[in-house]
Design brief:
about 190 residues; about 50% helix; 10 helices; 4 strands
């Protein structure tokens, strides 16, 4: 457990450095102009934009390998949906597809609160298809079927790993499921 936590913390700590590093004189990847435009979008709140200074969304997504036209899956976007506000418009503008995991509606034990959160998310983003496109919501949770195999080019999870580390075996199972859901060569 401690090793996984330390690796996760090391990766998160080094990310901003890696995103801006000059590897043996190589130029950093040029920022995608559509990505830069989306990050600067007027639909993003001042509070969300204030986080850009610490999260470096253009540099991070560029470093991670986001490209136009990808099929993207965001894991557990939550109520704030900080990455959704960037990734959904990016996918729409570049001809890609955008999905998120949502509360598993097939789970008979799902709480009313979880159902309401999913409803709220779908209503919020479904109300602006010209901006966000069609966002697919994939049932996902402790009792759900695995994610569809070889379906996504890019999977992003942020601020979730700490929760999966609490239950032995969950972290390994979860990342195996992500691996299996990636298309060959997916990120």
């Amino acid at each position: 457990m401690r090793i996984h936590r330390n690796l996760a913390l090391a990766a998160l700590t080094l990310l901003p450095l890696a995103a801006s590093a000059d590897h043996h004189g190589a130029k950093p990847a040029a920022a995608d102009p559509v990505l830069a435009e989306v990050v600067a979008g007027d639909w993003r709140t001042p509070e969300a934009k204030a986080r850009d200074a610490a999260r470096h969304p253009v540099e991070s997504l560029t470093f991670w390998g986001l490209k136009p036209g990808m099929t993207i899956l965001e894991i557990q976007p939550g109520g704030a949906s900080w990455w959704t506000e960037i990734l959904a418009p990016y996918a729409k503008r570049t001809g890609g597809s955008f999905y998120v995991t949502g509360a598993d509606l097939d789970n008979p034990e799902l709480s009313a609160g979880a159902r309401k959160s999913r409803e709220d998310f779908e209503a919020r983003y479904g109300a602006k298809p010209d901006l966000y496109g069609k966002i697919g919501v994939v049932n996902w949770g402790a009792k759900s079927k695995p994610l569809p195999k070889e379906s996504y080019d890019f999977i992003l999870t942020a601020r979730s790993v700490h929760g999966w580390m609490r239950t032995p075996g969950t972290l390994e199972k979860t990342f195996k499921e992500f691996h299996d859901a990636l298309k060959p060569g997916g990120i």
